[in-house]
Amino acid sequence: MDSGVLMLASRMLERYPLCDRCLGRFFAGLGMGLSNFERGRSIKVLMAMELHAGTSRDPQAFKDKIYLYSLNAGEPFSSFYKHIYGLDPPKQSPCYVCGGRIESIIDEWV
Question: Total structural domains in the chain?
Answer without folding.
Answer: 1
